[in-house]
Design a protein that fits this description.
Blueprint lengths: L9 E8 L5 H10 L4 E4 L14 H5 L3 E2 L4 E2 L2 E6 L2 E6 L25 E2 L5 E2 L5 H15 L15 H13 L2 E3 L59 H7 L3 E3 L2 E8 L5 E7 L14 E11 L2 H11 L21 E6 L2 E2 L2 E2 L13 E4 L13 E5 L6 H4 L5 H19 L9 H8 L9 E7 L6 E5 L2 E5 L6 H17 L3 E4 L8 E3 L29 E3 L14 H18 L68 H4 L16 E14 L4 H6 L4 E11 L2 H6 L4 E9 L6 E3 L2 E9 L5 E11 L5 E11 L6 H5 L1 E8 L12 E8 L2 H8 L3 E3 L3 H20 L6
Parallel strand pairs: 1-2, 1-13, 2-10, 6-23, 13-24
Antiparallel strand pairs: 3-4, 5-6, 7-8, 9-17, 11-12, 12-13, 14-19, 14-22, 15-16, 17-18, 18-19, 20-21, 25-26, 25-33, 25-34, 26-27, 27-28, 27-29, 29-30, 30-31, 31-32, 32-33
Helix pairs in contact: 1-5, 1-11, 3-11, 4-10, 8-9
Length: 850
């Protein structure tokens, strides 16, 4: 690699690497809060009308700079799977199929054994992400396919999927799509209507039109109907002053002496030349916060290459890799009795419907791991299908490609980037299929590993431990084929048990401890304050449905946490959304490579979307986080990042930790001990993040009261329900020096939306030291009817009662979740520890002779 350019490096509050679902969301949130943000994207901008369409253009639409290719398709081949990802402004949103499904509530599993060994564990819950799902859906204009309105009602493939699901007894839905079917919010859907731009404009400065049902979503929407990230999050980020730079490929990262990070990148200024990385000059930018959003492969590859510069990085780097259960198959020659049944795969968006296969964690015994099956589509390129001029050498190119793949398969170090080879195969023409693809995805086994081999990214993954899932999905697809009178065909690669994934996940997974993951539940890398992972690399397992929405929600939650830690927690609730009333004339950002200045005052300190109140108070440490630890404390590591420019600088230091308790209650019983022993008892658990906003005040006040946020799981009585408001008292006075109480009061609603209060007490009584563990780990709880304050508890109706315990494994994880935010965090944590130990000594220590 060429030497770095001379002169002092430029500096920004935050640098964001990549512009996909993680990077775009992070760039917008931070820029909106008033930070100086530089976004570095390796690929090019693609305004409406610029996506390649001709055979010759598509033959060069791949990413391999060494071969002079700077297109948007980045194709990889690994052990067990092949993969297609994107390079371009908007990342994967340029070529994904628009689906915005939320991860199913019960699929956020905790310590679930995986086939082949190990466990899948998510340190976040659906309740944690729901407010952020809401925000992303609004920003991206999520809406289901308008099948009840003409001409959209004439979509044969959608009706076929509905018919098949009904016949098989499965649920079929029209999932939310990031596609504009109407010209403005609330408008009637129509084909080719002008789209009204939001108040922040559009960085491309080109007009957009609604969906024309051409099936071209996966090769870039030239109408601009697809609400890809460049049309919303990135345009809004540029509007708020973010410096969005394309053709900048990041090569290395490292901590900066004194705090923050340094980022090395190259500028692909000439897109016509073949150039090795070492031939390009390296530029450097420094930052206080570094957000990695380069995608599962890009982010993991960057961290693996930078491992020497990041000593102490978790040994979990590279683990938990999976393809999100992706499986591609085909339906051929569908017939209705003696007639051809038209499926017309090229009409409509690529995906319009989704069939859900239930999971055993949904309460369906023996179901196995859950999945989704969606219909696919492809462009209606009639000129491609009969492109007779290219038939002569198409076979030659295909044979050459297959021979090269055969040779590479037996080489010790295969070239894992296939972009150039696929480009050669397409050449000046293309081979297309006239069938209806079926796309499966689900909870496969995240036991793959990404690593370096001779400096190149390699992956070890196999379908073997996910065989049961793939068998179930293929069997269901065969059932769909039977219902539609079609022939079923596997992906030709399946004979070697290989899959093609467009949803690679993992590699830098989140976990509650650096021994289990690379980053915490908010995406901050363990041991490296200010370094965040915002993309699919942070996923600790398969999402199940299309993962884009979950990745974006994770990034939104991450940004909320980052801004709170920077003293930017107060923000006006009016968030910009993609569906704002358009500005007069549709004015927007003028370009991409330089920041767009509007003169508007930046909105500061967001807490997120306006409708988040009462949903677990997601703007302080969030419910169910379990993700506080960063390995060594920030102070001890010597890598504490400097405060962001313009931060509030409040003197208070907050402290939080997460606690999980499990047990049982009996309905109709008022005494906790009796409820715990009753044979009719039912399971109940909770996971809470306890937050003291001001450690000094918390320790000084006699009630030692803190906030409690998270969820209560009442199993058969409504499942996991968010805590609407909660409080926790640590060692509250109880009438004597030898007795303390730990008190809990949680307001929530049950499955029928009836208000409930969980009130609980841990009785800390004088006795031998052997009583410390049972006293501090046993909670006597009652469920009350209504939201009952403490002074009215005596007259409240008791719904149920029982006992909860902290299990030893959960307690070990709890110790790893303590985190502070604010000045002298390590000192405040020590103050808290001294207080805790002192109170225990007061109760359990030997009696004085005085």
């Amino acid at each position: 690699m060429a030497a770095r350019t001379g002169g002092p490096a430029e500096h920004a509050d935050a640098v964001v690497v990549g512009s996909g679902f993680g990077g775009s969301v992070a760039a917008y949130r931070l820029a909106e809060a008033g930070l100086s943000v530089v976004l570095l994207e390796r690929g090019q901008p693609y305004p409406p009308g610029s996506f390649p369409r001709s055979p010759r253009q598509l033959g060069r639409a791949f990413w391999d700079p060494a071969a002079g290719l700077y297109g948007m398709y980045d194709v990889w081949s690994f052990k067990g799977c092949d993969s297609v990802v994107s390079a371009g402004l908007g990342g994967g949103s340029l070529i994904y199929a628009n689906v915005l499904l939320r991860k199913d509530e019960h699929w956020f599993v905790d310590e679930q054994p995986m086939p082949g060994g190990g466990y899948e564990s998510w340190p976040v819950s659906r309740a944690d992400l729901d407010p952020h799902y809401d925000a992303v859906e609004r920003m991206m204009g999520a809406t289901p396919y308008p099948l009840d309105a003409a001409p959209f009602s004439d979509t044969p493939k959608t009706h076929a999927m509905q018919d098949a699901a009904a016949e098989l007894g499965l649920r079929c839905e029209l999932p939310p799509l990031a596609v504009s079917f109407a010209g403005r919010p609330g408008g009637a859907p129509g084909v080719g209507l002008p789209i009204a731009e939001p108040s922040y404009g559009n960085l491309h400065g080109r007009p957009r039109r609604t969906c024309k049902l051409c099936g071209e979503c996966d090769i870039g929407c030239n109408e601009g109907a697809k609400n890809s990230l460049d049309h919303n999050y990135l345009s809004a980020a540029a509007h708020h002053g973010a410096d969005v730079r394309t053709a900048r490929e990041v090569k290395a990262i490292r901590p900066r002496p004194g705090g923050g990070y340094e980022v090395d990148y190259v500028h692909h200024a000439d897109l016509t030349v073949r150039r090795k990385a070492r031939q390009q000059p390296v530029e450097t930018i420094t930052c206080d916060r570094l957000i990695l959003g380069a995608g599962t492969y890009g982010t993991t590859f960057l961290l693996l290459k930078s491992r020497t510069a990041l000593p102490g990085l978790s040994g979990a780097l590279g683990t938990r890799f999976s393809g999100n259960g992706d499986l591609l198959t085909f339906l051929l020659n569908a017939r209705d009795r003696e007639r051809v049944r038209p499926l017309d795969a090229s009409r409509g968006p690529v995906i319009t419907s989704a069939i859900r296969l239930p999971d055993e964690v949904d309460g369906v015994p023996g179901a196995g791991r859950g999945a989704y099956i969606e219909e696919g589509g492809y462009p209606g390129f009639t000129d491609w299908i009969v492109h007779s001029l290219d038939v002569g050498d198409a076979v030659e190119r295909a044979v050459r490609f297959l021979w090269d793949r055969f040779v590479e398969f037996f080489k010790d170090a295969p070239d894992t980037n296939l972009s150039k080879e696929i480009s050669d195969l397409i050449g000046d023409g293309a081979l297309t299929v006239s069938s209806l693809p079926l796309l499966g995805m689900g909870r496969d086994t995240a036991d793959g590993r990404l690593h370096l081999r001779d400096g190149r990214l390699a992956a070890d993954w196999t379908t073997e431990t996910s065989e049961e899932l793939f068998t179930r999905v293929r069997k269901t697809m065969q059932g769909i084929a039977d219902v539609l009178g079609a022939e079923y065909a596997d992906n030709p690669m399946w004979f070697r048990k290989r899959i093609v994934t467009v949803h690679p996940l993992g590699g830098a997974p989140m976990a509650d401890h650096p021994g289990r993951g690379v980053c915490d539940a908010f995406g901050e890398v363990h041991g490296f304050p200010g370094l965040y992972i915002a993309d699919g690399a942070a996923m600790p397992g398969p999402v199940g449905p299309n993962p884009s929405l979950t990745i974006a929600a994770h990034a939104d939650r991450m940004a909320t946490r980052l801004l709170e830690g920077a003293g930017r927690g107060a923000r006006t609730p009016a968030r910009t959304t993609a569906r704002d009333v358009p500005a007069p004339g549709g004015a927007g950002a003028a370009g991409v490579s330089v920041p767009v200045r509007t003169g508007a005052e930046p909105v500061g300190g967001s807490t997120g979307s306006p409708d988040r109140a009462g949903n677990g108070a997601a703007y302080a440490p969030e419910p169910g986080s379990r993700g506080g630890t960063r390995g060594p404390s920030a102070a001890a590591s010597g890598r504490t990042p400097p405060p962001l420019a313009g931060s509030a600088g409040a003197a208070a230091t907050s402290l939080s930790f997460t606690e999980t308790m499990k047990g049982s209650v009996t309905y109709g019983v008022a005494d906790p001990r009796a409820g715990a022993a009753d044979p009719g008892r039912e399971p109940l658990s909770f996971r809470l993040t306890i937050t003291a906003d001001d450690v000094d005040r918390f320790l000084a006040e006699p009630e030692h009261e803190a906030r409690a946020e998270g969820w209560v799981d009442t199993a058969a009585r409504g499942g996991r329900r968010p805590v609407l408001r909660g409080r926790f008292n640590l060692f509250a006075p109880a009438g004597g020096e030898d007795r303390r109480l730990m008190k809990y009061r949680l307001f929530f609603t049950d499955g029928e939306d009836r208000p409930r209060t969980l009130t609980g007490r841990k009785n800390v009584l004088h006795g031998p030291p052997t009583r410390i563990w049972p006293d501090t780990s046993t909670l006597y709880v009652r469920l009350l009817d209504g939201h009952v304050p403490e002074d009215a508890e005596a007259d409240a109706a008791v719904v149920a009662a029982g006992v909860l315990h902290i299990e030893l494994g959960d307690f070990a994880r709890q110790l790893a979740t303590f985190r502070t935010s604010g000045p002298d965090g390590a000192g405040k944590l020590l103050d808290f520890a001294r207080f805790f130990a002192g109170e225990l000594w007061e109760v359990y220590g030997p009696e004085s002779d005085d």
